[in-house]
UniProtKB/TrEMBL annotation:
Residues 286-295 have a biased composition (Basic residues). SUPFAM superfamilies: Protein kinase-like (PK-like). This is Aminoglycoside phosphotransferase domain-containing protein. Residues 56-226 form the Aminoglycoside phosphotransferase domain. PANTHER family: AMINOGLYCOSIDE PHOSPHOTRANSFERASE DOMAIN-CONTAINING PROTEIN (PTHR21310:SF39), AMINOGLYCOSIDE PHOSPHOTRANSFERASE-RELATED-RELATED (PTHR21310). It comes from the Eukaryota. It comes from Tulasnella calospora MUT 4182. Residues 282-301 are annotated as: Disordered. InterPro entries: AGP_Transferase (IPR051678), Aminoglycoside_PTrfase (IPR002575), Kinase-like_dom_sf (IPR011009).
Length: 301
């Protein structure tokens, strides 16, 4: 059933959403327009549904706080195909204000103002109150999306910080050369849990000069985890938009946690092995190896 958030009066049916996104496209977003109705924004692809729940929660938090940035309302989200592997769709509020990327290009004299506004918006995310019994990663099901993982997405939907801790430490013990300097293992046991945002780039923020409000979009890389997950993006050199990222990181001045170096080393090893799950399950424990006789039985069948 479509979400009634923001009382949008003319939502398309799910079939209409699927049909609108059906032709081959090089992008995974769509501005959906119908005569007489406000436009909508549709995002489609894979590993989206968990992030939709995070966006819903942050929207609810934002409307309760007049000083919060804007978060686009989510009207509907669904997946077709096998659960966890199907194609997902998020129907949300369309943001009319130009992106920060646009303003930096057209009005470079606004840069300092925009940096301050974006830093304030990101800080709000990092300090946002947690839901009851928060899970690791997105609030909905599915794997975490974070720059520490190969391909920016966890290979498994880890069920706890302990599970991802075991994953990183398995990488460190499995791939570290014997003569390499000893690296302390990752240890999240004394870290508070909080929201993180690891995709801080100009296209992911819109700015309305009339309201002086920033809107945060593309929240797939926002999630919940130990504080090191919030700290990591601010202390690692990004591949893109370095000047912008540095300006925001400087303003936020997020403390560097003790786990950053070990996480970065593990991340490098995981990238070399293609983001493998390393034979672990979602709890970070080794999967049991199949018995030899069970293979023979399967082959006989």
């Amino acid at each position: 059933m479509a979400d009634s958030t923001d009382n949008h009066s003319s939502l398309p049916t799910r079939k209409e959403v699927i049909d609108a996104c059906a032709p081959p496209k090089d992008i995974n977003v769509l501005k959906y327009e119908v005569d007489g109705a406000r436009p909508l924004f549709i995002k489609f692809g894979y590993d989206l549904i968990g992030g939709a729940e995070t966006q819903r929660y942050l929207y609810e938090q934002s409307v309760r706080n007049p000083n919060a940035p804007r978060i686009p309302a989510v009207y509907d989200s669904f997946e077709i195909g096998r659960v966890g592997y199907g194609r997902g769709y998020i129907v949300m509020e369309y943001i009319e204000a130009p992106t920060v990327e646009y303003w930096l290009e057209k009005k470079p004299d606004m840069a300092e103002l925009l940096y301050d506004k974006v830093a304030e918006a990101v800080r709000w995310i990092l300090n946002c109150p947690l839901p009851p019994e928060p899970r690791f990663g997105p609030m909905g099901r599915g794997p975490a999306q974070h720059s520490v993982f190969a391909d920016l997405i966890a290979p498994l939907a880890f069920d706890s910080p302990d599970a991802v801790q075991r994953y990183f430490n398995t990488a460190l013990t499995r791939f570290t050369p014997k003569r390499a300097p000893i690296i302390a293992p990752v240890d999240f046991s004394n870290e508070e849990v909080c929201f993180y945002h690891c995709d801080i780039r100009p296209p992911n923020f819109h700015y309305d000069p009339e309201t002086q409000k920033v809107t945060i979009v593309d929240l797939q890389s926002v999630g919940i985890g130990p504080k090191s997950f919030a700290s990591f993006p601010f202390h690692m050199e990004p591949h893109l938009d370095r000047e912008f990222h540095h300006a925001i990181a400087t303003r936020i001045d997020y403390p560097e946690t003790e786990n950053i170096d070990a996480m970065a080393k593990a991340s490098g090893y995981l990238l070399m092995c293609g983001g493998s799950a390393l034979g672990l399950d979602e709890s970070g424990h080794p999967k049991p190896k199949p018995l030899k006789h069970s293979k023979n039985i399967a082959a006989a069948k």
